[in-house]
Design brief:
By secondary structure, the protein is α/β, with parallel strands linked by helices. The protein contains 5 helices and 15 strands. The protein has 2 domains: 95 residues, Immunoglobulin-like (Sandwich); 138 residues, Rossmann fold. α3 crosses α4.
Length: 285
Amino acid sequence: MTLRRFSASLAALALLAACGGDDTAPPPANQPPSFANASYEIDYPENGTGTIITLSINDEAVANVVIALSGTDSNLFAIANGRDLVFNAPPDFENPQDSNGDNVYELTATATDAQGFSSSIDITVTVTDPVGATRFIDPVFDGTTTLGTVAMVTPSGNSAVAFTGPAGDTLMARPLVIVGGGQAPGAQAMATDFALRGYLVGMTDTQAPADLTAMAGAFGNGAFASLGIDAGAIAVAAPGDARTGSALQAAFAGSDVPTYTFAPDDTSAFGAAIQFHQALLEGRN
């Protein structure tokens, strides 16, 4: 190779180097951190103290991502260990602390990386009652609401049972009080008192034992499901007409529904509610 040709080759190599012959791509632009899920809807048992959920984050530098909470009920929660969502205090099903008192807690989690990029996710935590538990709360509501009626074909014909619950309360998995003599002023007063104290009330006029047996059977076949009544959490009190109470106790004797009866002639509506409440606490639940 002549000196002239060798010099030309060196010049070409130098030109290639000057033009950036290395084709390595530039690093990608920073992306906001992202959550593994689009949203979270979680059931969490009352009195729980553990982690509700561990929030999973995707990011180039995930260790530097910080999670903050905001939203309607966010003040009741915290982030532990950088990723774990926890309650500040164990939730109480009977004493909900969420903004509208329905045991459904709503909040938003926002993940922010070291460069200020962020993304958010909505979280709903529903606090649940332990399976098989019966609530023994005895609040006094401002009013009552007629939920509807259930008509059952009985030996005496169609016996409609009207149901009343505390106004503004939709938690119907609670003890049920069946009040006999539904047209009598005393029975109506007792039914109102029970409903105001947080019980679900069924008003019936029937006294025929066969009719009451049919009513008892209806608890097991879903007849009340349309009213949102959870038959699995029902207990029965039978104030009102003494014959109704005795017949109901006999009708429910062979079922799994706990029943408590008492005569109305020596018991006020308030006293009846207290007796029923106490009976449940003593084990008839």
